[in-house]
């Protein structure tokens, strides 16, 4: 797959899918699948246009939108799906002020679009004034086709990046996974913690995440990671360690089972299988340890059930 950060010198005929694709969820996958079908019919590749930063971050910085996936992950999913070229263009205020007509003339036509695929709720151009109907009209004028995909739903719920973010913030990992079609994950660098964990018999890797990404609701989770190519199971706490502190910044810490390597400074990705419980304040270390023993058994049972996924 090619990744390009500017428009091509010459038009290269393509089918183009448009959107942000944060999380590359099942709705996005359905859209891309439709794009592939069109691409096969037209004998060209399927390309995708995404912007960086995510337009919401530029348009509404005050909302502090947190993302489900990094650009690298979005690109990886697209490569796995067989996308030919991803145009990864900067989203500037100038781009935000481009009218729908200009967007088509200055971006889509130079890309060589023969056909464009968008979802029912796609908006484009200044103040989001362009909608799928306008895109179809502009396609008619300039000679490219436009497919508009109906809303993809699961159990009557429309799949969207925002609904998945909401589920993760509420700790509903099952719902988030079913809408995503894959497990939610967290990534970051392992840093030094208070080093109490190893004394307790539950050493933890403290993970420093980037401010751009969404952190799930506080609580305890069954997780796994790939460390040096090996799937290592574990349990994660996202919280403020109320047993030890009145007030503390939220930390993400993972205890891996059957693992004793040095993870400091390593970048790790944690795949979240299930939420086990809320974080609690215990009456001392012994009570906490009893609960950690139980969490360990519960997490192992959950992870064993999902091992073959
Ligand atoms: C799976 C798991 C569950 C945890 N649950 C709680 C909890 O409910 N309440 C709490 O105060 N601390 C909880 N902790 C955090 C421990 O207090 C923390 O791991 C311990 O203080 C060691 O971390 P440190 O070395 O960074 O201090 C949990 C930790 C893990 C790994
Ligand atoms: N459930 C869905 N069914 C069909 N198309 C979808 C669905 N969700 C998104 N799309 C389409 O996929 C493309 C990329 O989606 P985009 O990431 O912009 O939207 P989204 O997932 O709805 O995100 P958000 O919730 O942030 O609006 C767009 O063309 C969008 O219309």
TrEMBL record:
Ranges for domain Riboflavin kinase: 179-304
Key words, A-Z: ATP-binding, FAD, Flavoprotein, FMN, Kinase, Multifunctional enzyme, Nucleotide-binding, Nucleotidyltransferase, Transferase
Molecular function GO terms recorded: ATP binding; FMN adenylyltransferase activity; riboflavin kinase activity
SMART domains per record: Flavokinase (SM00904)
Enzyme class: transferase
Record CDD domains: FAD_synthetase_N (cd02064)
GO biological process, alphabetically ordered: FAD biosynthetic process; FMN biosynthetic process; riboflavin biosynthetic process
Entry-linked InterPro entries: FAD_synthase, Riboflavin_kinase, Riboflavin_kinase_bac, Riboflavin_kinase_bac/euk, Riboflavin_kinase_dom_sf, Rossmann-like_a/b/a_fold
Catalytic reactions on record: riboflavin + ATP = FMN + ADP + H(+); FMN + ATP + H(+) = FAD + diphosphate
This protein's pathway: Cofactor biosynthesis; FAD biosynthesis; FAD from FMN: step 1/1; Cofactor biosynthesis; FMN biosynthesis; FMN from riboflavin (ATP route): step 1/1
Record EC number: 2.7.1.26, 2.7.7.2
Entry keyword annotation includes Nucleotidyltransferase: yes
Stated family: Belongs to the ribF family.
Protein name: Riboflavin biosynthesis protein
Naturally occurring in which organism (per UniProt): Desulfosporosinus meridiei (strain ATCC BAA-275 / DSM 13257 / KCTC 12902 / NCIMB 13706 / S10)
